[in-house]
Design the sequence.
DNA sequence: TCTGGGGTCCTAGGACCC
DNA sequence: TCTGGGGTCCTAGGACCC
């Protein structure tokens, strides 16, 4: 059974809101009358699945698989196989510690390209099955099926979810779990219940009871900081939070967050399922194997980051007006410096010029070695978009020649590989830049 | 237990303009 | 010399997500 190209009788819920932010304004409440049919399709341990598909004999052969950074360096676990989790391994944990907990485990690097490929496969399959698809991340997709009841012959949301699950597995070899309900928040939490490889749908009207039954830490938007803030006040469950007088909550976490929190815990979430718009920023960063002090070395690393970000910008056909440089020191403090240029740029030369002076500025502000260096570009505009007319004549941030040079370099790298050219002063890929897909995990 | 890399969104303060 | 309010843009930092 497949989805017609343009389902005529689908009545889409129309939303006028711009960003899909959970503003919770008085106008658009997700009240009891909310009868949307929303699914969250969540790939099971996505990186582990993809690593196994990409390397069936290596990663695919061991039950205890950790996907993530190197074991000897400062890497962390991005995803751990279900067999490894009973040992206490969690994503975000340092790989070294994970290996202490589960010594039998194999570590492999994240297969980035293959992850992108499989993610696009899943998205395309879903787009053929539902009228509105929002890619929330590489491995999570919201579907809005509101109005499809007749089209699907009265099929229940849970039946639809199971059908979609089977279909995705057939078409992409990726196993997913599916959560469903009338709101994104509820669908998301339901998917946790559905894992691994199952389906869970919360019936309309049961939202508040369902959310109240969840742990606070599982509610999207409640992170470690807010959690600790609430715990400090003795609030450990949704019921605890909802029992507290509103004015106290407002005093503790601020009026806006207090309101947001109460709405969420009552299962209210009016945010619409919206296909993702344009990218807002592009960045690259690097944590060093050992903290760095030498400014020349830092400069070379910065240049590498510039090349990566510049190429990313150009491949997307966008230009950036704001350049940001970020450093993290040994004490884990992060500092950023940003500059907005008078016109948007895309060439490595223009990006590098801005980045270099920002790095100097940052190095003047800190003492001691640098743990991480990052570089980002934001304030993006499409190439074709009308450029702002400068009010006064000024020096250009970027010449047509600089743009042309960068594009030629992209072309050469695309044809002959990343290592084809490294302008003087650039640190070539070192031993820490391991290549995915070879052998049994990485040992730099 | 020593914390990756890619993002998004929010807040707060200052500059500047009207 | 004292005194506005609002709007927009920019910067820095931080919370959060996967």
Sequence:
């Amino acid at each position: 059974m497949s989805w017609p190209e343009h389902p005529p009788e689908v009545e889409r819920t129309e939303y006028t809101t711009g960003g899909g932010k959970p503003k919770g304004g008085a106008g658009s409440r997700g009240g009891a009358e909310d009868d949307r049919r929303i699914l969250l399709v969540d790939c099971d341990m996505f990186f582990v699945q993809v690593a196994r598909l990409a390397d069936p004999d290596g990663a695919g052969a061991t039950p205890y698989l950790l996907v993530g950074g190197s074991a000897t360096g400062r890497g962390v676990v991005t995803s751990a196989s279900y067999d490894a989790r009973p040992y206490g391994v969690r994503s975000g944990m340092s790989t070294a510690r994970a290996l202490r907990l589960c010594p039998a485990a194999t570590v492999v690097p994240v297969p980035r390209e293959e992850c992108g490929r499989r993610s696009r496969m899943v998205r395309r399959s879903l787009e053929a099955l539902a009228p509105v698809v929002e890619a929330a991340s590489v491995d999570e997709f919201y579907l809005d099926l509101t109005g499809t009841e007749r089209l699907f012959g009265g099929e229940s949301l849970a039946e639809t979810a199971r059908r979609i699950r089977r279909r995705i597995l057939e078409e992409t070899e990726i196993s997913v779990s599916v959560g469903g309900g009338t709101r994104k928040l509820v669908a998301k939490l339901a998917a946790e219940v559905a894992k691994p490889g199952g389906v869970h749908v919360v019936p309309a009207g049961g939202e508040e009871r369902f959310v109240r039954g969840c742990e606070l830490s599982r509610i999207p938007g409640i992170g470690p900081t807010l959690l600790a803030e609430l715990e400090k006040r003795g609030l450990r469950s949704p019921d605890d939070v909802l029992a507290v007088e509103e004015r106290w909550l407002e005093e503790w976490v601020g009026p806006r967050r207090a309101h947001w929190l109460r709405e969420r815990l009552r299962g209210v979430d009016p945010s619409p399922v919206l296909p993702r718009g344009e990218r807002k920023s592009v960045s690259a960063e690097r944590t060093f194997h050992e903290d760095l002090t030498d400014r020349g070395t830092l400069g070379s690393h910065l240049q590498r980051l510039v090349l990566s970000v510049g190429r990313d910008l150009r491949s997307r056909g966008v230009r950036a007006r704001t350049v940001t440089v970020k450093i993290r020191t040994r004490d884990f403090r992060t500092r950023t410096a940003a500059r907005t240029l008078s016109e948007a740029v895309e060439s490595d030369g223009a990006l590098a010029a801005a980045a270099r002076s920002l790095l100097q500025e940052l190095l003047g502000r800190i003492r001691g070695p640098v743990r991480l260096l990052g570089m980002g570009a934001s304030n993006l505009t499409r190439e074709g978009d009308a450029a702002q007319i400068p009010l006064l004549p000024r020096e250009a941030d970027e010449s047509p020649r600089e743009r042309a040079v960068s594009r030629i370099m992209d072309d050469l790298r695309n044809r002959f590989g990343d290592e084809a050219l490294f302008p003087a002063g650039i640190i070539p890929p070192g031993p820490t830049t391991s290549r995915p897909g070879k052998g049994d995990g990485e040992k730099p």
About this structure: Residues 19, 21, 68-69, 74-78, 92-94, 96-97, 110, 137, 256, 279-287, 332, 372, 374, 376 of chain A lie near DNA strand B (CB under 10 Å from a C1'). Confidence is low (pLDDT under 50) at residues 1-32, 389-393, 430-444 of chain A.
